[in-house]
Amino acid sequence: MPLQISSMMGPCARPQGAKLRCLKGSRGLEGRQGESLSKTTDAAELAALQEKIKTLEVNFQEAQHRIAVLHVVHEVAGSLTSELNLEPLLRKILVAAVEVMNASAGSLILLDELTDELVFAVIEGGGGENLKGVRMARDKGIAGWVATHRKPLIVDDVNKDNRYYQSIADSFDFKLTSLLCVPMISRNKLIGVLQVLQSKPDHYFGDLDQKLLTTFANQAAIAIENARLYESLKEERDRLVVVEDEIRKRLARDLHDGPTQLLASIIMSLSFTKELIKRAPEHALDEIDLNLGVSEKALKQLRTLLFDLRPVILETQGLIPALEVYAERLAETDKLNIVLTVEKEFERLSPKAEVAIFAVIQEAVNNAKKYAQASQIDLILQPDESQDTLTVLIKDNGLGFDVHKVKARYEERGSLGMINMQERSSAINGVFTIHSEVGQGTEVILTLPLHENLLSNSKEM
Question: How far apart are CA 424 and CA 414, in angstroms?
Answer without folding.
Answer: 18
